[in-house]
Amino acid sequence: MELGNKIKNLRIKCQLTQEELADRCDLTKGYISQLENELTSPSISTLTDILSALGTNLSEFFSDEQEEKVVFTEEDFFEKATDESVIEWLIPSSQKNIMEPIMVTLKRGSETENDIPHEGEEFGYVLKGEITIMIGKKQYVAKKGNSFYFTTDKPHHIKNTGEEDATYIWVSSPPNF
User: Fold this and answer.
1) Residue 25 belongs to domain with CATH number
2) The pLDDT of residue 59
3) Which of 81, 95, 129, 169 is least enclosed by beta carbons within 10 angstroms?
4) 85 and 148: one domain?
């Protein structure tokens, strides 16, 4: 582990100069420079003081835990295309999460496969076009700007009943796509 480099990265993240960090820890700027360049090693007491000044502690500093990814871009999406639709998984590996958000583009006149009753809930938001949500024997029309929400205890599917391709965000909990 490159202790000095990790301290330097924390210092920069905290927007401190070497001198400012040194002042907060009763150390010299030269000592901080040597530490960051791996020319010296701190005692546990000194390291604790430095980490405290940087807003962390020993256990967080030495933790190998990866930072949770929060923002996902198009490069992260996974796509499956058929003649009737394009499904984009917006969160990679979301099948292992509590919710599974996807973006569906359903071609004009097309429909999703009929989903049998199962445990869960589904939510959607129409970005473009018009769809009809079939739940059991009932039908509900949702247009651009509308959202929908239902429990999945009845057979259900979605049909594009508009004049253009329809695009909507669909969130299933638990995942089932």
Assistant:
1) 1.10.260.40
2) 87
3) 81
4) yes
Residues 87, 40 share a domain: no
| Total domains present in the chain | 2
| d(C-alpha 136, C-alpha 143), whole Å | 20
Q: For residue 107, what is the DSSP state? A: -
Q: How far apart are CA 165 and CA 145, in angstroms?
A: 15
CA dihedral 158, 160, 162, 163 (to 10 degrees): 180
The domain boundary residue, chosen from 40, 62, 84: 62
User: Can you tell me the mean pLDDT for 138-158?
Assistant: 96
Express each pLDDT in 93-123 by its tens digit.
Answer: 776 778 889 999 999 999 999 999 999 999 9
Whole-number pLDDT of residue 111: 94
Rg (CA), the chain: 26
Enter the pTM of the model.
0.62
